[in-house]
Design a protein that fits this description.
Layout: H1 3-19, H2 25-39, H3 44-49, H4 55-59, H5 65-82, H6 91-95, H7 112-120, H8 128-139, H9 143-158, H10 166-179, H11 183-190, H12 194-211, H13 213-216, H14 223-237, E1 242-252, H15 260-266, E2 274-281, E3 287-291, H16 300-305, H17 308-315, E4 324-326, E5 329-331, E6 334-336, E7 347-348, H18 359-385, H19 399-415, H20 441-463
Parallel strand pairs: 1-6, 6-7
Antiparallel strand pairs: 1-2, 2-3, 4-5
Helix pairs in contact: 1-5, 9-10, 10-12, 11-12, 12-19, 18-20
């Protein structure tokens, strides 16, 4: 019972005794209690006979004090029993009464229920620009593009018997790819085990890199797309029949392989461990070829020569019907690259990296590098949008599929015309021209004649305007 209530009851008892000394409830109760204690073992009857005065005897007193006392005591007793009991506090809180309640678990914002509420309820109450901006901040792409990815991957994820919903698993992986979170960081956020985060990441990136690659990364062989691409590059560079730009990028690894002999192959010329990414982009900064096959110590020319694209180009497997005649030379569609790539009829490179050529050659080099800028910007967008590629924190065995998955997602965003993020700045290019292989000599001489013909034609056309 509350201490203040006991104190008030005691005061009322003393007040009653002073008003009616002939009937003392307190003294009778005390004497009754003493008698009961000393005689209960010998005679139960005497215990009941020495009980306190009955309410009837008190009410028959000549004074009004007993009635007043019981009335007030009853009211106080009712109030005391109806007061809400304070919540029990822990020892730590009683020692520190100023301690505020612990905040809500932040991981609840990333639970399945929270994601479901966001994607099925809250999302429809927002205007599209606000909705998509929120989705991009979380997963790197807008809500419509996100649903496209989920719908295309859902049948394949269903076959894996994953215990999580497909859209939740995709959202989790996109969150990791777009923000560069490690498996440990993401596990703490989503209240899951790190090994499960890694397993889901590997599954989703593998599906993106295999099941969606052929749909979203295509060589422009159809006449309609080829004409659109070459015309766009012509408007940009004044060079005819250019169909793409090729470049490489070092994808930094979070850590070197544990094997010292293997580690030396992955340390690139910029001083950090990496794997090589090779891409070809069109005028819209959409990749139409992606290759990840070489460790960081490999140069661009060797990586290119080991790629499927090189084998298809040299064997004539890729059939481009659009052929133009320039100063007596049949020029098929070609890609452009910097001086790190071999000069071939289908890969044209600058005459000189330092502007030491003739006026026609220097003009050609300037226009060629202008066309090449699209692939530089495409790689900058890729790393700016999918920040995991700035410091790849996945296992070495899963690095290629993660990189290719990000390239597929990049194309999805470019096709959907997603807002372009700030470009990631690549290190300055270094390295010299590759040597000409014996097997490439005929290609090299053919490429030289084509490049000179295009340079002379460009110089004549622009000088007469």
């Amino acid at each position: 019972m509350d201490h203040s209530f006991l104190l008030m009851l005691s005061n009322l008892l003393h007040l009653q005794n002073s008003l009616d000394p002939t009937t003392s409830f307190l003294s009778s109760t005390l004497s009754s209690s003493t008698t009961t204690t000393t005689s209960s073992a010998a005679s139960p009857t005497s215990s009941s006979s020495s009980a306190s005065p009955s309410p009837t005897s008190l009410l028959s007193s000549s004074s009004a004090a007993p009635l007043l006392f019981f009335t007030i005591a009853s009211v106080l007793s009712f109030l005391a029993s109806s007061r809400p009991k304070p919540k029990s506090q822990t020892t730590a809180s009683s020692l520190n009464p100023k301690k505020t309640p612990s905040p809500q678990n932040p991981n609840s914002d990333f639970s399945v229920s929270a994601f479901r509420a966001l994607s099925t309820e809250t999302i429809w109450s927002l205007e599209a620009p606000i909705r998509d901006a929120q989705w991009r901040s979380l997963y790197g792409l807008s809500y419509p593009v996100f649903t496209t990815v989920v719908e295309k991957l859902k049948p394949h994820i269903a076959l894996s018997n994953l215990s999580l919903p497909s859209d939740y698993a995709v959202a989790m992986v996109l969150s990791r790819l777009s923000h560069g979170f490690s498996a440990k960081t993401l596990a703490a956020r989503y209240s899951l085990e790190p090994y499960l985060i890694s397993k889901i990441t590997n599954m989703v990136t593998r599906l993106l890199a295999t099941k969606l690659y052929a749909e979203f990364i295509k060589i422009p062989v159809s006449r309609r797309r080829l004409i659109e691409t070459t015309q766009a590059f012509d408007e940009l560079t004044s060079l005819p029949n250019m169909c793409g730009a090729i470049d490489g990028s070092h994808i930094k690894l979070h850590s070197l392989p544990s094997d010292p002999n293997l580690a030396s192959h992955y340390k690139c010329r910029y001083g950090f461990p990496s794997v090589q990414l090779q891409v070809v982009a069109d005028h819209k900064k959409i990749f139409w070829d992606v290759c990840v096959k070489a460790p960081g110590a490999t140069d661009e020319a060797a990586h290119f020569r080991d790629s499927l694209l090189y084998n298809r180009l040299t064997s004539g497997d890729i059939v481009w019907e659009k052929v133009i005649n320039v100063r007596g030379h049949n020029v098929r569609p070609y890609v452009v690259g910097d001086w790190c790539y071999p000069l071939l009829p289908f890969v044209l490179t600058p005459f000189s990296p330092n502007g030491m050529g003739t006026p026609a050659q220097n003009l050609f080099d300037g226009m060629l590098m202008k066309g090449r800028s699209v692939v530089v910007d495409a790689i900058g967008l890729l790393k700016g949008r999918w920040k995991i590629l700035q410091d790849l924190n996945v296992g070495l065995n899963h690095a290629p599929q993660t990189i290719v998955a990000c390239c597929v997602l990049h194309n999805l965003c470019q096709i959907a015309r997603e807002p372009e993020p700030e470009l990631w700045k690549e290190p300055d290019e270094t390295g010299g021209s590759p040597r000409v292989l014996d097997a490439e000599k005929s290609f090299y001489y053919h490429g030289e004649s084509l490049r000179q013909a295009l340079a002379d034609d460009l110089h004549q056309r622009l000088s007469t305007r």
